[in-house]
Amino acid sequence: MLKIVQTKPYDDQKMGTAGLRKKSKVAMQENYVENFVQSIFDAIGGVEGKTFILGGDGRFYNKIALQKILKMSAANGMKKIIVGQNGYLSTPTSSRVLLKNKADGGFVLTASHNPGGPNGDFGIKYAIASGGQCPTSLSDKIYENSKKISEYKTLDTADVDLSTISKQNLAGMEIEIIDSLNDYINMMEEIFDFPAIKKLFANGFRFVFDAMNAVTGPYALKIFEEILGAPKGTVRNYVPMEDFGGLHPDPNLIYAKSLVDLMYSDDAPDMGAANDGDGDRNMILGKKFFVTPSDSLAILTDNYKLIPAYKNGIYGVAKSAATSTAVGRVAQALNIGYYEVPTGWKYFCNLMDSKRITFCGEESFGTGSSHIREKDGIWAVLFWLNIIAVTGKSVEEITREHWQKYGRSYYMRNDYEIADAEVANLLMKDLENRLPSLEGKTFGNYTVSEAKPFVYNDPVDGSSTKNGLIIYFTDKSRIVYRLSGTGSSGATLRVYLERYETEKFAENVEQMLESLADVSRQIGEITERTGKTKADLLT
Ligand code: VG1
Ligand code: CO
Q: pLDDT tens digit string along 85-135?
């Protein structure tokens, strides 16, 4: 039965870098999810006659929010909704399903790499018909709606059973529950050389994949163990859990600790990899060896010819401004287009749609291609396995050869957790005002050549976005400052450090970047303003 519920607006439903992210307890407030979803429906001119995609990474509160959205969708007259079995859809799969079905939009219930559970985070990513995250112009409209919403539509009805592949009807809306694995796996088989990777495993290549108790577990189990024949035990932590088993599902050297410990032990396998909560991030490790995501993007691009789907040529490549310039050197050598965009995958989408780029990536462990409009964790892992299978080289050899050929960008991200968001905002504002006065100044061994805000003018839709501040130095080093847009409390100041070398490849990255980190604190007045003499998290 149709029910119109009176509600009061919340004033904090502004989307960040990728969707809405909140503490679970905030999202669980009365009508919180409903307000946000109705605000989306209203912002896109209603959902009558339209088709949408729905799923999530399985985190806490997914089950309840899925039912809320299903009932609201039917009550608002949606024609059809395609839902992953048991409510699971990784972010890349959802983009795939959306594009394949030419749907009008899609919801993924996730806070990505943020921890889950009652004391963790919950979130909603909203994608548009192009398969990518909704643009800022739309999220602004949704935010405006959410601040004045007074009612929403839902149904007074029993919950929908999402456990079996089926077609159901909810008050006139078709619900199609799909097996999301097969379709995604078929797509991967079309892109990569599965027979070559199968042979690699048959010849004893040792690989470990850590799904971090998150959504890619079932995909990884099927692809790596069942189809490609890697031995049982290759895929770890493969059962998706509501709280990720207490893990912080962010695949980096700090949070994927057990995998990192294994890869740095004397009995390390040949390659290790991990994905994040919603399956769009990846980390690549060799034996006692770590590949930075910035290098990974550059290496994948340089080796495109080894992959069946790309061997006939790629368009250009793009990276976020904060990502190291390594891929820029490859683009130059290959003579392909090269773009620098703000942080957030949505900025790559127009470039892919207009065939300007094929590959793109971010320093935050995100890599992907135009096969979908989101980053794709398993895709990146398969790309590495494919390169190894064809070349017979190790992760470390491939990376070192890349440095020999192009030089090396030593790279690190320093995160400062600042409890008072106002302190962080003011730090950025004042730094922006000081930028012109920095040019030509010397800090230790580093002389500033240029200092300016990063502004991106989209070549396709003409929109302009300002995100972060960049300091360039005369020796090609760079520092980028920006505030995170995915946190759920306080502020995170991200400081990205890059130093370029062509000859001496020292092993200790932290040491190589120590003086630049000091310079970043000095230029940003970080210690004075926050009391911090060191970053809280180095990745
Ligand atoms: C972070 C990363 C950014 C990434 C975003 C979403 O944003 O830095 O590169 O696109 O998370 O990732 P921020 O604003 O906190 O720096 V995820 O895996 O949603 O899907
Ligand atoms: Co993610």
A: 999 999 999 999 999 999 999 999 999 999 999 999 999 999 999 999 999
Residue ranges covered by each domain of the chain:
2-178, 183-406, 408-538
Contacts of 456 (CB under 8 A, 6+ apart): 321, 340, 341, 342, 347, 464, 465, 466, 467
What are the pLDDT digits (tens) for 198-209? Answer: 999 999 999 999
Which of 402, 318, 330, 407 is closest to 363 using CA atoms? Answer: 318
Rounded CA gap, 158 and 51, in Å? 22
Is 112 catalytic? The answer is: yes
Does this chain's domain 2-178 share its CATH topology with 408-538?
no
Mean pLDDT of the chain: 96
Helix axes 194-202, 377-391, angle to 10 degrees: 70
Architecture of domain 183-406: 3-Layer(aba) Sandwich (3.40)
For the domain covering 408-538, report its CATH number: 3.30.310.50
The pick from 94, 364, 494 for probing ligand 1's pocket by mutation, whose C-beta has the most ligand atoms within 8 angstroms, reads: 364
Residue 486 Cα, ligand 1 centroid: separation in angstroms?
Answer: 6
Residue whose structure tokens are 């911090």: 532
CATH superfamily for 2-178 is Alpha-D-Glucose-1,6-Bisphosphate, subunit A, domain 3 (3.40.120.10)
pLDDT at 169: 97
Q: Whose CA is nearest to atom 17 of ligand 1?
A: 112
